[in-house]
Amino acid sequence: MSEVTPNAQATGSSWAAFLKSIASFNGDLSSLTAPPFILSSTSLTEFSSYWAEHPSVFAAPAKEPDPAKRALLVLKWFLTTLKQQYASRSEQYGNEKKPLNPFLGEIFLGKWEDDAGTTELISEQVNHHPPATAYSIINETSGVHLQGYNAQKASFSKTINIKQIGHAVLTVPDPSKPGEKDTYLITLPSLHVEGLIFGAPFIELDGASYITTSTGFTAKIDYSGKGWISGKKNSFTATLYPTGKEKDVLYNCSGQWTKAFEIHSGPVKSNSPKNLIGSWDPTDNPTTELKIAPLEKQHPLESRRAWANVATGIAKGDMDYVGKEKSKIEQAQRAMRKKEQSEGREWERRYFTALTEPDLPLGALGPNVGLSTSGDADKTGGLWRFDAAKAEKVKSHELSEEERIQIAQELLGQ
Ligand code: HC3
User: Fold this and answer.
1) Which of 90, 132, 234, 284 is such that its CA lies 20 to 30 A from the CA of 83?
2) What is the pTM of this model?
3) Given a cut of 90, is residue 228 above it in pLDDT?
4) Sequence-distant (≥ 6) Cβ neighbours of residue 65 within 8 angstroms
């Protein structure tokens, strides 16, 4: 507990009222009315970028000819993303804020350019009720491609507990078999919010998550939090084994997902300096900055452009202005949904399409790790997959100034 710094702003009655309200909330995170100082101006569509903030680690498996070692590099990459996903906003100060709830059709686009070449991010809000975000990240040089979608189901028991719904699929070209690719099906960990009572919220991961591969390996990552094996917060142990043979551990990784971890060959019980084969320390591995187009060049539905006024209001602490700007977007969105309904059509997703049948990764690998082959489509509005043809079409269409104005008016009320 000494690591949690109580937030001075949170000692007041607004925080007490917030704590009271979450004790009785209905599980819809977007309906939580948080006090102003806990509001973030970052939309959840931006969170997809946390998957590839170390592009060379993301692309590395495509250089490894041995399938077991390739699966280990995928596991290593996944572990390095955890700090970015769950602690990069709040690790030291415990100030995990409430992100902006994206509107349907909101997009967040960017690129990382570094030694790994160009890695392109596309993130899109593909569903609003319940909210679901889909993403595609491609490293052009290696051909490594991640796609996935996620939604959250929250409940309250002592604190806010969040079950993540959805999954990710990583495809990695096999360097020893040109033209062939491995597929990795990735499940998402559950989490809960700690430090709420002190007004200093941060995240702890719970239970286990998995990565299972088309090459016959599975990785299980057990999250233990403070006090289980190492007594340190954010602890984990991951084992990689041939699918179905959990006891035949080939490699294991252990440490703290916010700090350093080590990689050993063989099972955890035989860990010693002799079988230490790798390590990771985020302090030695700075992230690569994501490049985003300047606001005036962005599509009107791009997160930072669409929420610019709301972000200004949050930065100034002007909640009346925040409220007015948010409700412009909400009203325009409601009007658009009505219009679509009256015209008997649905909002056309820009980069993703919902499958009607499970695809190979989910159908074949889902049962290995307890994932429903429906992709939990009832809770995410669909089993969402990246649609390269749609993306091509979008790329070749430059918006005119009239189109920009019309989109901003019709969909955002701006
Ligand atoms: C729960 C969460 C929103 C969802 C965030 C997700 C699960 C989104 C997908 C990313 O890939 C991973 C991820 C990381 C953080 C998760 C957020 C942490 C807090 C936020 C709640 C809606 C905010 C709760 C409010 C408060 C004041 C307690 O922080």
Assistant:
1) 132
2) 0.95
3) no
4) 174, 175, 176
